[in-house]
Amino acid sequence: MKVVSRKPDIGIVVGGDGIFSKYGRAESEPLLFVGVRSSRVTGSKAYMAQAYFDELPSALGKLKRGEFSVREYSRLEVFKDGKSLGEVFTDVYLQRGDESNSLRYKVRVTGPEGEMEESAIGDGVVVTTAAGSTGYYSYPDRIRGESLNSDAHAELGTDRIGICHIVPTFTERSGSDARPLRYSVPWGSKVELWITRPADARLYGAEMGRGGVRVTRKDRITVVAGKSKTKVVLLSQTGQ
Fold it and tell me: CB-based contacts of 144: which residues, under 8 Å, 6+ apart?
């Protein structure tokens, strides 16, 4: 084994889930996610990590011995008014900016299970892959009455796309009595998002910066299955 600057067989990404998400949509080689332990309550949970940084020598030993497998995760591609903003490995979310109160927005899903449209008022909406299901999509799992379980999270199958409204005060699905908070739809579905009143709305996760992409009432966001895949290295467990 040796470190190279070009065309590596495997990439090692050290950090938290945000860093994993960033490189997971930018790199084509298999990636080993290595977490950093944090004593801070607000530190990253690094749910996607296969090892922590202090365990890196052991992890490298497993790589050298071939004690690993590679799993492919499909990405989502995000469009704004028909122009591609790129692909995402974990999630993309439309959310209110600092200069706005709750957003009024709509969600339309078209796919193998038919078409449905929702109206909502809230902080926004998340669209996620299976790899991103432990992130923002999991916030309802962490809330239990008046307490918070920061380790609780959801799991989503690789054949599903997750949709979750962010702290809504109102949701309504057209033609039904449903008041959805979170659900999944088949992979291959098309998800469209747009705001219905002027607001400071931002799209996060579809570009490398932290400021988000400005979204106006005239804009239409579309999320569909991407063309690329992220390859994740899974280390064999002890005794396997």
Answer: 152
